[in-house]
Amino acid sequence: MARMTVAGGGLAGCEAAWQLAERGHEVTLIEMRPVRATPAHQTDRLAELVCTNSFKSTDPTNAHGLLKTEMRSLGSLLLAAAEEARVPAGAALAVDRDVFSARMTAVVAAHPRITLERREVTGLPGGPAVMATGPLTSAALTSAIAELLGDDGLAFYDSIAPIVSFESIDLDVAYFLSRYGKGDGDDYLNCPLDREQYGAFLAALREADVYPGHDWENLPIGRVVEGEGSVRADRGGDIPFFEGCLPIEVMAARGDDTLRFGPMKPVGLRDPKTGREPYAVLQLRREDRAGQMWNLVGFQTRLRTGEQRRVFRMIPGLEEAEFLRYGSIHRNTYLNFPARLNAYGAPPARPGLIFAGQLTGVEGYTESAASGILAGVNLDRIARGEEPVLPPSTTMLGGLYRYLREADPDRFAPMNSNFGLLDPLNERVRDKRRKRERLAERARESLAAWMREHRIEAVEVGEGVAA
């Protein structure tokens, strides 16, 4: 069989390389550090964690915990190494980041079928490969990817609005209506605000704590890019924002009525309960066909997650909102997956070139690693003359990939694990914890059946990682 190439020594790349090597392939894993440094990394080790040291919950009734359960079923190097480096963190899987990356580096480099090369990848490999170079992909490789996928196949920063679960929206307050009855007439959910509620929301928004971002993101808070020129917004700092997707807090700083004449415009949205147009309106748009996830339209933000919960729950109808994804704006090179890649993450013209990790539009450590596992599984299948396969959308990994391939290409933004990605249960379960237990049970059963159907065996990780 042909030698496999994996570009990128992060979490996704290490998982992909391990899957391929354990399935019998010779693998060249290429990491550009330390030959070419990045502004985010501090060491030359593989799988270095540049943000938090937590992989989030291990509870299978939590979306992140369920994804870990699925990763273990397939064989996850990350989770095995994380157990070796674990530090106390309650139900979360947190690690000593130095011990973790050192262990990952040692185990991967010692695998007899993995050759680790330290050099920059400046072009796309000619043979079978997994591309997992992450949000800090070098300029040369970014140009090569853009040449393959087209200039509109890449994005260079996130502009993400929060998503809340449908069942947490108060429908005694919110109402279905499209502006002027367009579309099907009820494509949007609307949360109405009167003058007093709008004023309180605006005041809280202006005072809320904003996430400043990492220095390496190099996004100079408040500078607004408008075509060829730029202007200084009212809020201080140096982060450049594009006029078409300003953070909600930057718009609030421009004036009392900016939001009311922008994303919170009430025109054409008469409240059926009062017969009048509200003073202001927050619109929510569905993110999935089943209508389980609803996006806060125009509410891209850099507020810290706790502030998003506090401030956005002031909006009538969202007092008990469950946030499935928080808003963000930061540097993040990723591909327009639904527009440019096939179902398992390869360009149609290069079926043996599979993208994985944050490049694909998944958000989070475990999501990136899980996509690397699946990329390794499918590149192995391609090499053996078998069709690539995806887990069913009753699983967290399958739900993530369904989102990637079915999202609107014009509004595509990265996504993290959440229960809104899964197919709804056939039966109605009112108790929230029992519902999640049932979703987790079904996911485990579905993944096991999928693996049996396609003869996918879990790879060995325990003995290789244990010190």
Written account of the structure:
The chain has 467 residues and is an alpha/beta fold. It is 31% helix and 16% strand. The protein folds into two domains: 4-156 and 331-465, FAD/NAD(P)-binding domain (3-Layer(bba) Sandwich); 163-325, no CATH class. It has 13 helices and 19 strands. The strands form five sheets. It has a six-stranded antiparallel beta sheet with strand order 10-11-15-16-9-17. Strands 6-2-1-7-19 form a five-stranded parallel beta sheet, covered by helices on one side. A hairpin with a 4-residue loop joins β4 and β5. α2 runs parallel beside α10, α2 (63-74) packs parallel to α12 (432-453) and α3 (77-84) packs across α4 (97-110). The chain is globular, with a radius of gyration of 23 Å. It starts with a strand and ends with a helix.
Class based on secondary structure composition and strand pairing: alpha/beta
CATH topology of the largest domain, by name, is FAD/NAD(P)-binding domain
* Count of runs of 4 or more consecutive helical residues: 13
**CATH homologous superfamily (4th level) name of the largest domain:** FAD/NAD(P)-binding domain
Beta percentage is 15-25%
- Give a short account of the largest sheet: 6 strands, antiparallel
| Annotated CATH architecture of the largest domain | 3-Layer(bba) Sandwich
Computed Rg: 23 Å
Provide the spatial order of strands within the biggest beta sheet. Answer: 10-11-15-16-9-17
Output mean pLDDT: 88
Tell me the span between the first and last alpha carbons.
31 Å
- Measured as a percent range, the helix fraction is 25-40%
Summed up, the domain count is 2
Q: Given this structure, which CATH class of the largest domain is correct?
A: Alpha Beta
Beta strands, count: 19
- Shape from CA axes? globular
